[in-house]
Design brief:
The complex is a heterodimer of chains A (about 425) and B (about 325). By secondary structure, chain A is of the alpha/beta class. Chain A contains 16 helices and five strands. Chain B has two domains: about 220 residues, P-loop containing nucleotide triphosphate hydrolases (Rossmann fold, 3-Layer(aba) Sandwich); about 70 residues, Alpha-Beta Plaits (2-Layer Sandwich), CATH 3.30.70. In chain B, helix 3 crosses helix 4, helix 3 runs parallel beside helix 5 and helix 4 packs across helix 5. In chain B, strand 7, helix 6 and strand 8 form a beta-alpha-beta unit. The chains are: A alpha/beta (about 425), B alpha/beta (about 325). Chains A and B meet through helix 1 and helix 10 of A and helix 2 and helix 3 of B.
């Protein structure tokens, strides 16, 4: 009850602080708009928005060319050639989401009416929506190619048979030719000549392959500004100490742990409200501004759970900052490092798929990284609780560590 | 009536600095007790230990029989603190501030509302109750500060320098409130200040604290009585035993003592000495405790003239707590 009283009082104080409200609730929206709109639009004026599909054409024959032309004609997917080894290496490094491999002898097999196979190799964390779009286009084109090849093959055989058998016109009536064509069509559908084999290399779940800059804006800035509440919590403790009301609370029948929890709770609630505002803006506001909106993913409650754990981690970090920073300048300095420095390294501003290849495992020691990864997994990739379990556990561990060190180092006197 | 507060060998050390040196005192129920001493004497540290803000290095205290080492929460429930600082939330209203501290002490619902109304009335701020504290004058803020310490109706109220930076009108209002609380509710009050007039006016007993030690504890009357009819600081070029004996033999003189020469160099020009003024002037200073100050002055001057001894300075200290403090510690209260 006393913890709630402290928390409610802090929220009342916060609500009367217009500067803090602007910083906590309006600033993230400005960042999201700028990032989603202006930054996302850079170079998009004449940019081809089709999904890029790298293709390693080991065959180079007419049917391979025909397949690529078909993909291009189908729309939605843009073909870009790449060497097989380079493509596989890029997938391995999480730089490339997927690649189509047309094996050597493909055209010869298709031309000879023998079954042929193309391989679609994808990164385990390739965006499911984009992968599905590529697969549909590919299977459509392959199906057409199979049908074309099989019908042509059947007609060729009919021609050969007619040429070898005088009076065959009696055998190959129009009805029989139509029946043959139908049978070939059914066979092409049931047993396509060209098969799309999908392969996902076994890898540790390296995050982030398919997420674009604009996709990352809402989760990234949600994480960045959720951690800003740590500064608000630390500043609230500092202000209480400066005003003397902290001494007054110490003289009241409230446990020291209760006081710290009472200071954490408003930061936690503020974090949840912040996320709600940013998400609402991301879902509806961006669309109203003509920008692509976001969703909470296939499992919205998992997204909410992630936000709750991040808010917990941030509020515990606030106690740690309050414990180690003794002046307003120290709080400001530490908070800047945490907000902007760690936020940048943790993928809040520059997406993880850009950072990870550059920084290797460094971001993994930063809570922002795990928060970003979990939110991207739930919101963008539509993954569920099992997939973000590790990130949630790491964030909870950070929260516990921050709180424990904060309590240990806190100067009550 | 028993003691509401018993302080037993309470001590606090900050690093190498011994801020409070094992003090003992007791405050009776219904008493207004003064803790008088200069800034840095250990008053606030003592209160901080008793109220549970600081953990004592040694010793303990009991509030209403509850030991602060073993029953701190029960002890806290019986006491209220009005700290020296304006320990308020400036953007919240007076009512919101007082209500918050009421809830912290376990009040809720109708009872909380009633208590808040009551204390707002005591500090005469009912009409401004819903205005943000930041819009108040310094004196009004002090009154809200006091109200926040009263809302849970403590048996023992610690008022730590409650009149710092307060205009005379608010100061008078604070005095009235303190006396009213004590008179009408029997609330015991510990009042710390370095203003002797306030302590003289409000407190029945006073502990004089200096450098973490209680140097005297008695009723105001008895403390002032220590100086008899007052104290004279008599400056002479050189005092010998014959002079001291001669002055001591005068009928209006209670006792005589040669004050030690200052060990520290004289203060920089323009700065007031922290020691007794006459000591800084050079020569010797004889401290004469008088039975009757006027007769003692006449007798002393006569004695010096009779023995052809020049008088280099003469300071007459009227009997009050300020001169008692100077008499006991050799220092002024408001340093």
């Amino acid at each position: 009850m006393k913890i709630l009283s402290i928390a409610w009082k802090d929220l009342q104080v916060l609500l009367r602080d217009r500067g803090a409200i602007l910083e906590l609730f309006l600033l993230p929206l400005v960042f999201v708009v700028v990032y989603s709109g202006a930054v996302g639009a850079i170079g998009q004026g004449d940019k081809d928005e089709r999904i890029a599909l790298k293709v390693a054409d080991l065959d180079g024959g007419a049917d391979a060319q025909s397949l690529l032309a078909g993909i291009d004609r189908a729309g939605g997917v843009r073909v870009e050639l790449i060497a097989e080894a380079e493509g596989l290496a890029q997938i391995d490094q999480a730089k490339l989401a997927r690649m189509l491999v047309i094996p050597q002898g493909f055209s010869e097999a298709v031309a000879g009416g023998r079954p042929a196979e193309v391989r679609l190799v994808s990164h385990p964390n390739a965006g499911p929506e984009q992968s599905e779009a590529v697969r549909l286009v590919l299977e459509g084109v392959v199906s057409d190619l199979s049908l074309e090849a099989q019908i042509l093959s059947a007609l060729e055989r009919m021609g050969e048979m007619q040429a070898g058998q005088p009076g065959a016109e009696e055998i190959w009536t129009v009805e029989r030719a139509q029946a043959q064509a139908r049978a070939q069509f059914a066979r092409a559908e049931g047993e396509p000549l060209v098969h799309v084999a999908q392969r996902v290399p076994a890898q540790a779940g390296t995050s982030q392959v398919e997420v674009g800059m604009t996709d990352a804006a809402v989760p990234g800035f949600t994480v960045l500004f959720l951690f800003l509440t740590a500064q608000a919590a630390a500043r609230s403790v500092y202000e209480e100490k400066k005003a003397g009301s902290f001494r007054r609370l110490l003289a009241a029948p409230v446990s020291r742990m209760g006081m710290l929890l009472g200071k954490m709770l408003p930061a936690f609630v503020t974090g949840l409200c912040q996320a709600a505002v940013i998400f609402a803006f991301g879902i509806w506001g961006l669309r109203l501004l003509g920008l692509p909106g976001v969703t909470l993913g296939a499992h919205p409650w998992v997204t909410v759970l992630v936000v709750a754990v991040v808010a917990l981690c941030s509020s515990a970090l606030g106690i740690l900052i309050a414990a180690v920073a003794h002046t307003e300048n120290q709080i400001g300095g530490l908070s800047s490092v945490i907000l902007w420095g760690l936020g940048t390294l943790g993928g809040c501003i520059i997406p993880l798929f850009v950072l990870e290849p550059l920084l290797g495992p460094v971001p993994k020691v930063i809570p922002h990284y795990w928060a970003n990864r979990a939110l991207l997994d739930t919101m963008v990739r539509g993954l569920g609780l099992a997939d973000v379990g590790v990130a949630l556990a790491v964030l909870a561990g950070f929260a516990l560590l921050f709180f424990a060190v904060g309590v240990w180092r806190f100067d009550f006197e | 009536m028993g003691a509401i507060l018993e302080v037993d060998g309470l001590a606090k050390k900050f690093g190498d600095h011994q801020a409070v040196k094992g003090i003992h005192f007791a405050v009776e129920e219904g008493e207004v007790f003064g803790l008088l001493g200069p800034n840095g004497a250990g008053k606030t540290t003592t209160i901080s230990m008793v109220t549970g803000i600081l953990e004592p290095t040694a010793g303990t205290a009991r509030i209403g029989g509850y030991d602060i080492r073993t029953d701190l929460d029960k002890a806290k429930q019986l006491s209220g603190l009005v700290p020296q600082e304006l320990a308020l939330y400036q953007t919240l209203s007076a009512r919101a501030n007082i209500s918050f501290f009421g809830r912290i002490y376990g009040l809720s619902g109708r009872e909380l509302k009633e208590r808040v109304r009551e204390v707002l009335e005591i500090v005469a701020l009912t009409e401004r109750a819903d205005k943000p504290v930041e819009t108040f004058s310094g004196g009004m803020k002090r009154r809200v500060n006091i109200a926040a310490g009263l809302v849970h109706q403590p048996k023992l109220l610690f008022l730590d320098e409650p009149t710092t930076g307060v205009d005379p009108q608010s100061r008078n209002h604070i005095f009235e409130s303190v006396l009213r609380l004590n008179r009408e509710r029997g609330m015991s009050i510990i009042y710390t200040s370095h203003y002797m007039e306030e302590v003289e006016l409000l407190c029945s007993r006073v502990a004089i604290i200096d450098q973490g030690e209680i140097v005297a504890l008695d009723t105001v009357k008895n403390l002032i009585g220590m100086l008899g009819g007052g104290v004279l600081h008599v400056g002479v070029p050189r005092a010998d035993q014959a002079l001291l004996d001669g002055l001591a033999a005068l009928p209006a003189v209670e006792s005589v003592r040669l004050l030690p020469r200052p060990a520290t160099p004289p203060p920089a020009p323009g700065r007031e000495s922290t020691k007794e003024p006459a000591l800084a002037a050079g020569g010797d200073v004889v401290k004469v405790v008088a039975k009757h100050s006027q007769q003692a002055v006449v007798g002393t001057i006569g004695y010096l003239a009779e023995h052809d001894l020049p008088l280099t300075s003469l300071e007459i200290l009227e009997p009050n707590l300020e001169s008692v403090f100077l008499h006991l510690t050799g220092k002024k209260l408001r340093e």
